[in-house]
Amino acid sequence: MKPSTRPEARRFDAIIVGRRVAGCAMAIHLTRAGFSVAVVERDVVPSDTLSTHLIQDVSLFAELGVLREVMACGAPPLREIALHIDGVDLSTSNPDRPWLCLRRISLDAVLSAAVNRTGALVFEQTAVVDLLRSGDRVSGVVVQAPDGTRRELHASLVIGADGRNSTVGRLVGARKYDITHNERTAYWGYYAGVPMANSFHFSRRGRDLMLVAPCDQGMTLVAGQPPLDDERDWRDPAVLESVATELVAPLRGVLSRATLVGEVRAVRRMDGFFRDAAGPGWALVGDAGHFKDIVVGQGICDALRQASALSKRLVPLLRAEPSVVDAALQGWWRERDADARPMYWMAQDLGRVETDVLDQEVLRLIAGSARHRRRLQQVLAHHRPATDVNGMKVQISAMARALLRPSVSVAELRRAVGGGVERQRERLSPQRRAAALPAVRVVGNISGIPAQQGSPQWSG
Ligand SMILES: Cc1cc2nc3c(=O)[nH]c(=O)nc-3n(C[C@H](O)[C@H](O)[C@H](O)COP(=O)(O)OP(=O)(O)OC[C@H]3O[C@@H](n4cnc5c(N)ncnc54)[C@H](O)[C@@H]3O)c2cc1C
Fold first, then answer.
1. For the chain, what percent of residues have pLDDT higher than 90?
2. 160: Cβ below 6 Å to ligand 1?
3. Which end of the chain is more exposed for a tag (fewer CB within 10 A), N or C?
4. Cα separation, 61 vs 11, whole angstroms
5. Looking at residues 249-263, what average pLDDT do you find?
6. Is the CA virtual torsion 322, 323, 326, 332 positive or negative?
7. Which domains occur in the chain, in start order?
């Protein structure tokens, strides 16, 4: 992909570091609103990246003006969501809002082409290696080209959309908080020649967990998420295929005749976290600021939603006073956390290896009603908060039902309740919460930004 050929300008309204989901979305929103934008990307995009690609809300692409191109990539709309968890069937249909499983090489190609059309200045194969500062504000970046030459780019705002190991995050000293450790690893491959319906399959049985979905170019994603301590050699396709056919019925008798394209890929360590999202002259968007257990496959839509929300805050403030922009960034930080937090904990719960009688009762409760199953699907599409299916009301109903179940002993139930209370206490602990809340610089009355108490210093 060729970089934009617009003449280079050295001062920008915004510099965006990273040119994949979050970076492209930011660049499209901001350039459309009249911002001058530079995008700096150290790789060639599109290129392979460690990610699968379940997308639960394609309307986010319409907002970016790329829905037609995304759909033209050929990933079939997934209207059947087959969820089987520990013997409980939570499946639903979603004819009106199909999901999509679009390989990143295709998605990133669409998004980066759209960025090229905006006229943003794109620096490809160029890494941000340092930040420029003016007093306590970030005022630009130092970039390094592949031949080692360095140059400075100046901007009112630097946006790190540079992934989990964010360079911008490290250079501004952004703290991580609410860190969680994944209990499962991930292995996945793409198979050609799998005749199956356009449905997404999520199946967890015992310690095993599989995700299967047809994606673009006639391929099917087959992904396993065994516990970290699993001793089978999942790099061996035979292992992936045998668990897949055991857990996902439509693969039986067909996967053995299909062809694995490339090799089985793996990711082992992927701790979840929130990272300070903003400070004077900088913000982090997408994985740079927040990463959650991939079991729920939410990172792409999260990145798109965050870029949309951050842009909405920034667009009315084009070339406003720095303090006004900074206050808007702090408001966005709060908004990001409020938006992401319920799903974050739900993802961790779904990725847990050991479950208990209360978890199972919650699943049965949801499975028992079409309304609840639809609600779960809306939660997974982020149209409802996760608390709608795992909040206190649901937990209490599940507890009452478990009490009446002869197969559940009081001791088991007590242990499950104790475990749940302990997890909640840990999640809501004052230290965690304090670390999670941004302190706000007092900027007076700015419409749309809630007045906040706190230290006049930045928290980062
Ligand atoms: C195994 C796995 C499976 C997943 N499955 C799903 C799924 O099914 N659905 C889903 O929604 N999400 C999934 N995710 C999460 C999803 O991949 C991420 O949330 C998403 O990629 C975030 O996009 P991003 O643009 O924020 O970051 P990235 O895609 O990581 O992009 C960051 C970019 O920044 C660039 N960069 C980094 N440092 C610099 C620097 N110093 N200078 C210049 N450029 C730099 C990188 O080269 C990269 O191109 C999965 C993740 C993993 C690991």
1. 83
2. no
3. N
4. 29
5. 96
6. negative
7. 11-53+103-181+271-343 (3.50.50.60), 186-267 (3.30.70.2450), 356-428 (no CATH)
- Tell how far the Cα of 361 is from the centroid of ligand 1, in angstroms: 35
Ligand 1 pocket member 298 (CB < 6 A): yes
Candidates 408, 399, 342; CA nearest to 365 is 399
Ligand 1 site, residue 342, Cβ cutoff 6 A: no
Closest atom of ligand 1 to CA, residue 20: 25
Q: What is the mean pLDDT of residues 166-187?
A: 95
DSSP for 108-167, written as a single string = HHHHHHHHHHHT-EEE-S-EEEEEEEETTEEEEEEEE-TTS-EEEEEEEEEEE---TT-H
**Any atom of ligand 1 within 6 Å of the Cβ of 162:** yes
Ligand 1 atom 39: the closest Cα is on which residue?
A: 162
Cα 66 to the center of its chain, rounded Å: 19
Sole residue written with tokens 């050699």: 233
pLDDT of residue 329: 97
pLDDT band at 426 (very low <50, low <70, confident <90, very high): confident
Residue 414 token pair: 């007590």
Please tell me the predicted confidence (pLDDT) of residue 10. Answer: 73
pTM above 0.90, yes or no: yes
Burial class (CB in 10 A: 0-12, 13-18, 19+), 115: buried
Provide the Cα torsion 201, 338, 57, 32; round to 10°. -150
Mean pLDDT value across the chain:
90
Which residue's CA is minimally distant from atom 28 of ligand 1?
A: 163
289: left (phi over 0), alpha (psi -120 to 50) or beta: alpha
φ, ψ of residue 259 to 5 degrees: the values are -115, 125
pLDDT of residue 433: 57
